[in-house]
Specification:
It is built from 8 helices and no strands. It has about 160 residues and is an all-alpha fold. The protein has one domain. Helix 5 packs parallel to helix 7, helix 6 runs parallel beside helix 8 and helix 7 runs antiparallel to helix 8. About 10% of the residues have low confidence. It comes from Entomoneis paludosa. InterPro entries: EDC4-like, EDC4_C, EDC4_C_sf. It is found in: Cytoplasm. Pfam families: EDC4_C.
Length: about 160
């Protein structure tokens, strides 16, 4: 007869979402540690590798855009820049106003740091930029007139 191992006791509450919440908090802690160590590429790589854009927004909100994307010493690779643009672009259309300012500031600087001729990303640039334009136009159409100018500035 085969014996089953006893269930492992867990200190976590038995809610369905507890492991996901704990994993998200662990990833946020890891990102904050990497940012504190000025390891921007690994921090943003972790953020854009997550299944939602929430960590990308979190990473941007906790990093200094001027330090990470200072020209000519941009501290992120082109693949991470395009991934970050894509993730931030997808949330612009529905972002809460509290995070929208962060997203817009980062998107503007990411656009300035993007090298569309870079062989590692060139085939993805048109699609990502088109998605970004669509998201911005959706947000403009939805309406806060105070957002019209910063959103349209991204398109120019």
């Amino acid at each position: 007869s085969s014996q089953q191992a006893p269930p492992v006791a867990s200190a976590a509450p038995s809610r369905q979402s507890a492991p996901a919440v704990n994993q998200m908090e662990a990833m946020k802690a890891e990102i904050l540690k990497l940012l504190a160590e000025k390891q921007f590429e690994p921090a943003f790589t972790r953020a854009v590798s997550a299944s939602t854009a929430e960590l990308a927004v979190f990473c941007c909100a906790n990093a200094d855009v001027n330090e990470v994307l200072a020209v000519p010493n941009v501290r992120l690779s082109q693949p991470i820049i395009i991934c970050l643009m894509q993730q931030l672009g997808t949330v612009v259309a529905t972002a809460r106003n509290s995070t929208l300012q962060v997203e817009l500031e980062w998107l503007q600087d990411l656009a300035m740091s993007l090298d569309p001729k870079d062989k590692t990303i060139s085939q993805h640039v048109p699609r990502v930029l088109q998605q970004l334009v669509t998201s911005i136009n959706t947000r403009v159409a939805d309406g806060d007139p105070n957002l019209r100018r910063p959103l349209q500035r991204l398109l120019s």
